[in-house]
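Incident log, structure service

09:12 report received: a user says their structure output differs between two submissions of the same chain.
09:20 pulled the input from the user's history:
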Amino acid sequence: MKRETIICVTPNAALDRTMVVPDFAIGHISRIDRAIAVPGGKGLNVARAVKILGGAPVAMGLLGGHTGRMIAAMWAEDGFEAEWTEFDGETRTCTIIANQEGVSTVINESGLIAPADWKALAADICRAAERDHVSAICLCGSIPLGAPTDAPSELIARLKGIGARVWVDSSKAALRNAIQAKPFAIKVNRDEIAAALGIEPRRIRDIISAAKNLVDAGTRVVVISLGAEGALLVTENRIVRGRPPAIQPVDPIASGDCLHAGIVTALAAGKDIAEALRCGVAAGTANALYAGGAQFPYNDYRGVLRQTRIEVEPL
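09:34 re-ran on a clean worker, output below:
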């Protein structure tokens, strides 16, 4: 059976409320026509974008309380597949405010679980990863408070033992811990890799050098988002640079998640890794044209893809 299912894990899921407020300012009263409320968290954004791009995502993560039930219902109503792990607590809510220049302010609750909740989630993920048709496990976003400090590396080690390809998109302590387990791939932005490795990436060559060090240490693929400048992908023998067309962004939130989704969906479909980066950069760029996170139309993605360029050089 073809390995095509992409498992998108959101350990710290949320209900995301996005508001486009043209005159947003601290201490100022604003009125808006509507707010967009969607199941959120990086893994859910990845799953949503994977489906837009024609892939087969399965969402996994911890859900609890009234907000958790609401997220599960909304996700099912939108036609997405999921295998949730329930916990005895309340799923967090996050608020995103975007102004007319496409600059977003994000207010995230932290999330709180018990160690046993993480143990249950990890067991569920490992069981799902054993299925023959799984192409990738995308471990995305923050780890909720209360999880063991070595939660990411312990889970990655178990998944590697199963033979799963683990993609990590996280930051801070969770990313540093995940790196220790040498996952198949890491997808981060330049600030996240700088903080995780304790470097100052002043030039593109500095970022490439940092990525190459991770590859030399055992991670097979490192993808670094450069925002409006596109993205870099580094493997053992290639450096690939993806360059998007210039756009006027509406809401760039979740563009990194859509970059991630574009790459893993293209790889699951059998595309070369350089072409997969082009697909990812196009997806991230198309996402920035719309508010709400991973809400872009497929036809707009195709239009951006035609204008997205890649440059490949050997190492």
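09:41 both user submissions now match this output. Likely a transient worker issue. Closing.
09:42 reviewer note: The CA atoms of residues 115 and 148 lie 6 Å apart. The radius of gyration is 18 Å.
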